[in-house]
From TrEMBL:
Pfam assignment, any one: SCFA_trans
PANTHER family in the cross-refs: SHORT-CHAIN FATTY ACID TRANSPORTER-RELATED (PTHR41983:SF2)
InterPro entries to which the protein is assigned, alphabetical: SCFA_transpt_AtoE
Organism lineage: Bacteria, Pseudomonadati, Pseudomonadota, Betaproteobacteria, Burkholderiales
Annotated organism of origin: Trinickia dabaoshanensis
GO MF terms, alphabetically ordered: transaminase activity
Protein name as catalogued: Serine--pyruvate aminotransferase
Top-level taxon: Bacteria
Transmembrane segments: 36-54, 66-91, 111-139, 151-175, 201-222, 265-284, 296-316, 328-351, 357-378, 441-460
Membrane is among the record's keywords: yes
Gene Ontology CC, one term: plasma membrane
Keyword tRNA processing: no
Keywords: Aminotransferase, Membrane, Pyruvate, Transferase, Transmembrane, Transmembrane helix
Length: 461
């Protein structure tokens, strides 16, 4: 069954609503431009900062760094698009549609919606950030079909629950420091030792605040739901979508070779054999681990198995591709920003200035605070760590500060800053089918609450 396309009434409210949360939503709707335009504004800010305080501030360096970063991120951009598309294809499968309807069937009120979506999405995000993105957007959409809720509020809730992903099993910072010989294992390069996951994602200072964020924000979101007269719900499929044939209805009998080939499971079995064979041999030799590529491969294999026929899977991917336009625009722009930050030394300058005022006890917290700023400009955790890690880890060694706390301070700040940085919200709102401005108005509250929770955990645990 083809999932229904969600359309949101994008007309602004007639008048500002009352209350802090409503004021934030109102402000974001009117002050925050389209994320692509925002990325252009951030580019200008970074250029000016580089000219003013970066050690390599020549205009030629800025131009070269911008150009290199813009095109260096293209592989990553395609990976993100494939995660969205392959995840969408899984959710498009009839059996998954039935499961989503079953999970959402017991929801009757906004409160129950929040109490369902936060633990489900939070756990999925903890397992894998890509899985959490897809599950969150699609579960929110399925709930919104059944219950009269403010859809932006619901999508913001799913994105807020997803925010803990950098404290989970797919945390690039934690995984790289636990992996012998990893190019980003800066701890091993400096000390010859690795930091196991028991010292990072399974340590109380990481999992306690992550659980608290999910639990606390679930209750806060229940209180934040707009009054009935202010709710902007979703509307069902637009007329132009009705003409598109259902991919699963294309299995009608046909004598032609092309039709039989499209419906045949042989092509599906070939890819399943290749993919499963690769994963089995790799995990047998190296042990189980997930990275971006294996996540995409898993999503691909699962989607193929659930869709069964090649044509059903191809049609699902075609529908998913409609959602990727904004990602194609924004990721190269952020690549340029990252290139300027790294190439001119601007990110290093920001990190170093925080480190110079730190003590052994406060360094993890300063690492966290500096990461909040850098994440807004370098939203990729791996690229961010490559910039900040070489400065905060030597500082931790010289000050005899906690290496796990210092490293995970960077990761925790990624969780927090993502609630104001639209980079990762783009695939969520694309799948959900909603404009981002109202969503970010709600996640600004998540930013404020999680900022305090993670800071206290670094300081006290």
């Amino acid at each position: 069954m083809k999932p229904t396309t969600v359309k949101i009434d994008s007309a602004p409210s007639v008048a500002p609503q009352r209350g802090i949360v409503a004021a934030l939503v109102y402000a974001f709707e009117r002050l925050m431009p389209d994320p692509f335009v925002l990325s252009l504004g951030l580019t200008l800010v970074v250029v000016l900062l580089a000219l003013g305080i970066a050690p390599k501030h020549s205009f030629e360096t800025i131009l070269d760094s911008w150009y290199g970063g813009t095109f260096k991120i293209l592989a990553f951009a395609l990976q993100m698009i494939l995660i969205l598309a392959t995840g969408y294809a899984i959710a498009d499968a009839p059996i998954v549609q039935r499961m989503l309807r079953a999970v959402a069937s017991g929801v009757r009120t906004p409160a129950r919606a929040a109490m369902l979506i936060f633990p489900v999405v939070g756990f999925a995000a903890w397992l894998n950030w890509g899985l959490g993105l897809v599950v969150g957007a699609l579960l929110a959409r399925e709930i919104a079909r059944r219950v009269k809720v403010d859809f932006a509020w619901l999508v913001a809730g799913s994105y807020s629950a997803w925010s803990i992903c950098n404290s989970g099993l797919s945390s690039s910072i934690a995984l790289s420091q636990a992996s012998h010989g990893n190019a980003l294992n800066l701890v091993e390069k400096a000390t010859g030792q690795v930091i196991g996951l028991t010292q990072t994602i399974f340590a109380p200072f990481v999992y306690v605040p992550s659980v608290l964020v999910v639990v606390v924000m679930a209750f806060i979101f229940v209180r934040m739901h707009p009054k009935p007269e202010d709710v902007v719900a979703f509307s069902h499929a637009a007329p132009e979508d009705a003409a598109e044939p259902d991919s699963h209805a294309r299995n009608a009998p046909s004598a032609s070779f092309a039709a039989r080939a499209e419906r045949s499971v042989l092509g599906t079995l070939v890819l399943l054999a290749l993919g499963c064979g690769y994963l089995a041999t790799t995990w047998y030799k190296k042990g189980f681990e997930l990275d971006i590529d294996t996540t995409i491969l898993l999503f691909l294999l699962i989607g193929l198995a659930l869709q069964r026929s090649p044509i059903a899977y191809a049609d699902a991917i075609r529908r998913a591709a409609r959602q990727t336009g904004s990602m194609l625009l924004q990721y190269p722009i952020y690549g340029g920003i990252m290139g300027i930050m790294i190439g001119t030394g601007l990110a290093s300058t920001i990190a170093e200035r925080f480190v110079t005022i730190a003590t052994p006890a406060s360094l993890p917290l300063w690492s966290y605070l500096s990461s909040l700023i850098i994440t807004l400009l370098i939203p990729s955790a791996g690229g961010h760590w490559a910039v900040q890690g070489p400065f905060v880890l030597p500082a931790a060694l010289s000050l005899h500060a906690s290496l796990p706390h210092t490293a995970m301070g960077v990761a925790m700040a990624e969780n927090v800053s993502n609630m104001l940085q639209p980079f990762w919200a783009v695939p969520v709102v694309a799948i959900a089918g909603i404009k981002i401005q109202r969503v970010m108005g709600y996640t600004a509250v998540t930013f404020a609450v999680s900022l305090v929770i993670y800071a206290l955990a670094l300081w006290l645990l």
